[in-house]
Each structure stands twice: as structure tokens, then as C-alpha cells.
User: Fold this.
Amino acid sequence: MPEEMPTGESPTGNSFPAQLPETALSAFSLADQPVVKIRPSRRWVALDLKELWAYRELLYFLTWRDVKVRYKQAVLGIAWAVIQPLATMLIFTVFFGKLAKVPSDGIPYPIFSYAALLPWMFFLNAVTSSSNSLVGSANLITKVYFPRLIIPGAAVVAALVDFSIAFVVFVGLFAYYGYSLTWGVVLFPVLVVLTVLLALGVGLWTSALNVKYRDVRYALPFLLQLWMFATPVIYPSSLMPERWRWVLAVNPLTGIIEGYRASLLGRPVMWGALGYSAAIAILFLLYAAFYFRRTERQFSDIV
Amino acid sequence: MKPIIQVRELSKRYRIGAHRARYGSLRESLTEWGRQPYPVLLKRGGQERPTIWALKNVTFDVMPGEVVGIIGRNGAGKSTLLKVLSRITEPTEGEVDLFGRVGSLLEVGTGFHAELTGRENIFLNGAVLGMKRAEIDRKFDDIVAFAEIEKFLDTPVKHYSSGMYVRLAFAVAAHLEPEILLVDEVLAVGDAEFQKKCLGKMGDIARGGRTVLIVSHNMGVVRTLCSRAVVLDAGELLHDGDAEEAIRLYSERPKSGTTPIVAHFRSHEHAIRVTSCEVNGSASDLVHLGPEDHEIKIRLSGVTSRGVTADLEARLSDELGSTLAYFSPGHVRGSGHRLAEGPFTIAAGIRLPRLNEGRFNLSIRLTHPSITIWATAEPAVLLVADGEPFATGQVLPMKQVGWTLLGGHSEVEAG
Assistant:
């Protein structure tokens, strides 16, 4: 093995950096254990969080790309992150709040619906973009290795950027209607984490399914729309007739969405529903992650 | 000394029946299968089997610092081997142990985004290839200098010329410093000048003590860079050892005449799929040129899933892969043909210079000239020329005469 460092001028006039980085130095001392072991995998594979952590910078760069590219050619740019939830809130206020007179538990309808639209729009965007992310990254998947979980993961994190911007609008509404903070606000970060976990779970699962069955792309927008109506976004849980309450009870988003209203607008927290949502979000994420890892190895052959 | 790469009885099986049945888009599955080893299928008596072995019991070791060429004809399993080693696809059987950090370069510009600037793409592409942010920061200036794009650093790469794009992409990749580098034919990019520079850089990397595996059709590259070569044939290891011996074996093997030309095509974009290709009326990849044949007629049909601009390009090379001459009517005309969504046929006639007796490779590409490569067959056809009895041949290797541009025409056939 060559002992000296390759610092000399090459025939083409390009030279290696005079000081080689540490990673390059290790090229001269062979590892005792294989750095990479390639074996045909069994049915279920470990999550390998260590490797995921090692690739955290790629998650950052892919997220950054998603955010940057999304609004790059749009004249209004990032303003769309404000316009979308705001316009939706106005439409809902006119049709459901004013015309249909949907009750809003004594809260002004605009802020009542916006507090729910905020997490719902995030969930919708995160799930939609992550479910299409693997298929859209076919060129990456077939050409370079990295933990595939990063691709739908980046899509969810990118949706979080829009969420933060939409949240600023909420703060404005909040001040406009003269609300003040209550202790419930300490719950807010927990709720955000829960929403992310649930969106990640659904996103991972649908993205893996989408690689195999392209039907997902067509079915998902429709199912998500149904899901919104099964969630107390435009109406309060109390409006649901008794015999349909079970739909809300089963839906893990119910506890989360009502949680946002409780946390931000100072209403009583439904701990039971919230606990159920948390349990489902975590369990489903675990299932989705393992399902993803199991199907992952076929991605490059199928996509 | 201990090997840095240990490959043990590696096999990879592709299920073709299942692919066709299971996945929604037949078009894309077929595109993918255009690249898979049809020869293997044909050898087994032509009947369709549900599975295909792209690799079969491949075993070899690579010592630290070795530069190993992987050669073999289209569909021999070279790319599959690289994909398994770089963990893009899983083996069906066998084991691989890698005693070092792996970087793979199966394509130039993986992860590039057209809307992002050169600067942004350096970071994105670097991260995709496995570099740390600090590492990219440190090498940033070197990368920019190597690519010679200083002035356009903050321009979106969609406004780059194809040459600039490729230079930037290669520059990022060339600054990857893994202990084991896996490279697939990426050297066949850019103009002759830049190719030389790329080769120089590859030589540097090789001399720098890194272990390199190169898949190439260009025997010149293998001869220059590799001390050792592995020959694959129909997924099996045919030869492992001296590079010269490997090149001789590869060149001698009867490698054409049994495979349809269309099977050599690789789609680079899903938007276009080549469905048939004939050269001088032959659909098979061995074409005989008599003394009176002064023209090569290519007729290529395909399907596009959207409106695209495309034209044929062709390259004549000697048997060892050195380019002799180019044909590119799209570049001469300044643009390609507009193709509407659906099936299309492009016919081209290439005026040939007088050829000496010998065997030549004809590569065919379907491109949007200077913008995109849609599909390539490299090589597509083996031309066996009788040569003219009294004339001396006119085409010489590129390195001796520079570029020889072949005249001719191409047009879209109606219907």
C-alpha cells in the first residue's frame, strides 16, 4: 500500500487537496470488520436508525430542495403557503359558518375552522407529497444508495415549513379576535409532533404502496377528502349525531384536531381521544416503517 | 493482504412474469426490460420463463488499491453487479463484504434539479452521492474550478449547455472520496477534451490508493486505467485476471447476430420507449456491408408518452470502442424533430466513407440534441465490412484525425 500521500500534480494539472480529509486517510488502513455487508434479506428487516442518523444531512438537503423548488417558478412564491389555508378558511366561513350556520361551540367560525385547517392542511400536504415522493424520485432510487425512508421523510418535513408559515397567520387571527394564551398552549408542541408522526406513518405506507400499485395516486386524493369530512375540521365533534360518533372516535385525527382547538383556543382537552390518537399514530408509524423497510429492496427493480 | 471487496457466489434473479403482471404501467416495465438480458432468455430455447438470472454464482476478490474493469456485452450483468455492490438492488443469493466506504457513480448528475442553480446543485448532488456538508464546503472551489463554470454558478442549470451540465455533474462526482468507487460508463460524456480530463482525474483517483471498479464498453479506457479485468457473460464470470487477456477474450467472442437491435436500447427517460430498430433492413445486431454499400439506413420506431423533440445520433467505433466518426443531423440542423404523443418512426440515412475491411461498432442514440438523451444502444450493431477492393479506407481513430462528421439526413416517417 502506498505510504505517501498523493499530493503530486497529475498529468491533467489537477491535484488532490494537499491535505486529505480523515475519511480519505482511512483508505490506507483497512477496516477489520466489513463496513458494508450485503446479504439477501429476510422478510422483515430492522429499521437501522443508526444509518438513518448518518444520512441526516441528506434529509436536510432533500427537504431544502423540495421547499426551494416548490415555489421557485411561482410568482407569488412562498405566499401560497398563506393564501391556501386563508382562502380555504374564508370559503368555509362563508358556506359553512354563514350560510349553513354550522355551530362552532361559541367560537368565531373563522378562527374555529382555521385552528383545525392548520393541522389538516399540513396532514393533507405531507401525505400527498410523501406518497408521490418515491415514484417521483425514481432516478435517485435506481442510481444511488441511501436509506429510502429519507425520501418520504423529506416530503413530510418540507410540508412542515408551510405549516409554520400558516401558523403565523393564525397568530394574526388570534390577536384580531382578542384571544389570549391559556395553559393549554404547552400542549401545542406535543400536538405538532403527533401530527408529524401520523402524517409520516400514513406517508411512508402510501409511498411504498404507490411504488407497487399506481392506483394509490388516484385513490388517495379521494380518500383524503373523505377523511376530512370524517374529521371535525369544519364542524365541532358535538355536532355529530350519536350513532355516527364512532367514526370520530375511531379516527386518530379527531383527538389531534380537537386537541389543537383545545390548546390554542382554551377549550377543555379530550384526554381520552388524544391518548388514543397518540397510540395509533405511534403504532401505525412503526408498522408503516417496517412495511416500508420490507418492500424497500424491491423499489429499484420496480420503480 | 486482505481483500477490500469479497464477492461470494453472488446471484441476482429478476422475475419478469411477475413484473408484467403486477405493476400498473406496462410501458415502464417494458422499458426496464429492454435493458435486461434477452440473450439469456433466447439461449434457453426462446421460451419465456418467469425468471431470469442477471448474475449467476459470481465470485471474486478485489485488493485495496486495485482498479478493476468489468467488461461484457449488453445484458451480461455488468450493471446489475454494480447495482448490487452499491446496494441499489438486493442479491437473490450470495454474499458481499465491503471493507470500506462505498461511493457509486452509475450516472452523471444523479439528483440534479433543473430549477436549481449550479451552486445549489453542487450541494444537493454532493449530499446525494454521500458527501457531508462540511466536505462539500471544503471541496466547493475545486469542484467549480474543475467544471469551469465560475460565471454561471448562480444560474439555474436548466439554462446550461449540455456540455456545462455534464462538466459540473462530473466535477461533483470526481471529488467523491470513498475508499471504494464504483463507476458505470460515466466516462462516455462530454466532448473529447473533457473526456480526457475525466480520464486524467480517474487516473488520479486510481493512483491515490483508492479501489475502483469500472464498467465500460471502451476497451481503451479499460486498457489505460485497469490492471485487471473481469469479463461477464450472461451473468457468469468468464474471466478474472489480466486486463489485456480480458480485452482479447471480449473482442474475440462472437457477440452479435443473435440479438435483436432493440434489445440493446436503454431508456434514460420514461417518456420514450424504443419498440423496434432496423439497420439496413436487419433487425438483428449483425449487419454485413458489401463493397457497394455506401449508406447505413437506420429505421427506429418507438412510443412517447408526451410530445418531445428527438433525433437520431450515431457513432461509428472500432471494436475496442474508440470512436471513429459521428453522425448527428440534429446538431447540424440546429434542432430535432417534434414528435407528438404516441408512436413514431424516424428514418436516417448515413453516408459512409470508404471503409477498410474490418469490424465496426455502430452505436445509436435517440436524443434531443444537446439537451437530453432519451435512449441509447451502445453498441447497437456490429458492422462487418468487406472493404472496397481498390480503395483505402478513410475513417481513422478520432485521436489521430480529430472528429469525423458523417453526412446524411434524418426525417420522421408519416403514420
